[in-house]
Structure formats: structure tokens, C-alpha cells
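Chain X:
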Amino acid sequence: NLRAVVPYHKSVKVGTLEAILNQTEVSLENFQKLL
């Protein structure tokens, strides 16, 4: 069970990192629009 849990947590971390990067890209685009 532990072996199955570890990759799951890794994928969740990767997913949250991608979500954060996507949010930063969107906020950067909005910031450039304000300029």
C-alpha cells in the first residue's frame, strides 16, 4: 500500500505545482495588460 501511496503524493505535488505555475502565468498576463 505504501508503494502505491508515494507515487500518488508525488503526482499530487506535481499537479499543485502545475496549477501554481498556471496561476502565475495568468496573473503575469493580466499584469502586462495593466501596463
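Chain Y:
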Amino acid sequence: MTEPKVVHNHHVKFGDDVKPDEDEKEEHSRPPSPAPDPSEVTAPPPAIPCAIKDEVELLRAGLRNKHGDHVKQHHK
């Protein structure tokens, strides 16, 4: 890590007489919302393994390419 209070070559330093524009200041009209309770947070539903298996089977059969586009007609 760098040492504290080290001025780098590409660091821009403004004089004391330079003040930021009013429109550049970030003012929040309201405070940030609080975090939800841990009991209210739920995990996403588990993925369906058979859907992944179907995609893999289609790739292996040559019916789809790696982008998911159909390349051959599917005949049963």
C-alpha cells in the first residue's frame, strides 16, 4: 500500500481560493433507507436441474450452439 499523505503525479490539487460549483455537490434530500431485517431476506429459489440437463443435451446433440440458437430442426 502507499504511504499516507503522499502526492502522486496524476493527483490534481486545487488552490484554497477554488470552490466547487453548487451543482457538483451531492446533496441527498432524504437519508438512505435502513437495511431490511435478516428474517425478511429470503434466498432465491433453487435452480431446476432438469432445465440445465435439457440445455446440455441439446448442445451435445448439436441442436443448439453455445449461444442457445437453434441450428438444426428437432425431429422426434
